[in-house]
Amino acid sequence: MKDQVIGIIEQSLSALQSLGVLPEGDMPSPQVDHTRDPNHGDLATNVAMALAKRAGMPPRELAQALIDQLPANPIIIQCDIAGPGFINFHLSQASNFAVVETILSAGEHFGRSTEGSGKRVQVEFVSANPTGPLHVGHGRGAAIGDTLCRLLENAGWSVHREFYYNDAGQQITNLALSVKARIDNVEPSDEAWPKDGYQGAYIKDVASAYLSRQTVDAADRSVTASGDADDLANIQAFSVAWLRREQDEDLKAFGVDFDQYFLESSLYTSKSVERTVESLIANQFTYEKDDALWLKTTDFGDDKDRVMRKREGGYTYFVPDVAYHHNKWDRGFERVINEQGADHHSTITRVRAGLQALESGIPQGWPEYVLHQMVTVMRDGDEVKLSKRAGSYVTLRDLIDWVGRDATRYFLTARAATSQLTFDIDLALSKSNENPVYYIQYAHARICSVQRRATDQFEQWSSSDGVQHLALLDQPEEQSLALALSKFPDVLSGATKRLEPHAVANYLRDVAAEFHSFYNAHKIIDDNAELTLARLSLATATRYVIANGLRILGVSAPEAM
Questions:
Q1: Fewer CB within 10 Å: C terminus or N terminus of the chain?
Q2: What residues contact residue 365 under an 8 Å CB cut-off, 6+ apart?
Q3: Which among 116, 78, 99, 560 is positioned nearest to 334, based on CA atoms?
Q4: pTM summary value
């Protein structure tokens, strides 16, 4: 419907050009959006405000001129001028319900677009250190990252999912020392326990598996434990593989897959880090000071220059990140999105600065970042901080075991990434209207139940049978539901452009509320056969929208509850 209104506005603009009110030449495509308040109409545009300067007249005056030149059409029944020059359009009842036929025709494809035109985009998310089970923060990153991928795919992008394993550095050394301590029967409470060692119960499990000389297959490699308590290199390799496998299994239980796993260690074995540093030196963006090597990040907007190579030797953590992202650029990813925790905020400027210092062709805002805030888990009114598996934090698997995959994915996506999230276990388990994922899934299941009953009443029934009777739908609840359904493509488009998957979760909750209001106010299967068919068409269209939206979130759409 928006496209049709845009076309009508464009005809009016052409007429104003012919009258000399607007200058000749190309005009920008009018921006049309749904109004927030139905009392102000169905759709609104700011085109008069955008073109007032070209016309050399006040926006409200141009808005009236535009309204006067609107061609006759069966869609717009009333126009209002609001504020400094907005034009609000009130649409006919028939046009409001036209979306039902569109949805029924498109089915599971309703809401999809070709905005991405098949262009490649790489999305990196989770990227947890292989030193322990995935915690709830990783879970939030997995839910947001995977939903972003689904949104982009839905919009026609060719998406490459990637997981970056930090399998090098001091944290990996600490892991190996922790496992060796367990192999040597050293307890975390003992003085001999390594400083900064990992104390979770999983370390004992790794040690036991190592002594049993197990073979672990993890993503792209297989490692066999020698069982030698003094073979620290083998202990480290086996421990990393064991925990990578554990993380992979958690992600599979969460419905998340990756196209590629990239190892930080490969950046060192391939000499990529060394070549990156050499290139930065050759490009004259480094200098020596206090026996350390510095990068001139202030040349690219940073508040101060940053150390690349420490005085005591070894590179700071952002250097391999620069090498890794240059590798992404070399692989042809002109668009890259990183979904990470908010603690990565300080690295954004440094990584971008290093990339621009390496190669002038890399844009200033490349890569893009979506940073999520921390998650607090609540149960029985108290914060949950411990896990049997990890010891000091709640794991992603804990959440899945407690409330299931659907509720976990929905709750971890339902708030803006920039907001801190409270995950209420009791709410996620409740079968009530207060639980949004239950509320949405129940709406879908309700519709499926109605369809089954309709099949019992009508020997041959199709969801499109009621299209010719949609004019019978004149109740406020029916109109509100149809209007909500019409917003779905715009919600998906906006969520994709702004990288805000929570918008889809919130929209589905609103659609479910509209459907439940409609269902509670009116009998769908009525004595009037034509009205019944019309309402079945509306309900079926709602089912498609809910199912399509839940698919984007990676949440199931049950047919019975």
A1: C
A2: 352
A3: 116
A4: 0.90
